[in-house]
Amino acid sequence: MRSPNLVKMVSGNFVGVVLLVEIIVVMMSGCRFEANGLSMDYYFRSCPILDPIMKNTVFRALQADPTLAAGLVRMHFHDCFVEGCDGSVLIDSTNDNTAEKDSPANLSLRGYEVIDAAKEQLERMCPGVVSCADILAMAARDAAGGPMYEIPKGRKDGRRSRIEDTINLPAPTLNASGLITIFGKHGFTVEELVALSGAHTLGVASCVNFKKRLNDVDQNMDADFAKTLSKTCSSGDNAQQPFDATRNSFDNLYFNTLQRKAGVLTSDQTLFADSRTSGVVNGFALNQAMFFLSFQRAMLKMGALDVKDAPNGEVRKNCHKIN
Question: pTM to 2 decimals?
Answer without folding.
Answer: 0.87
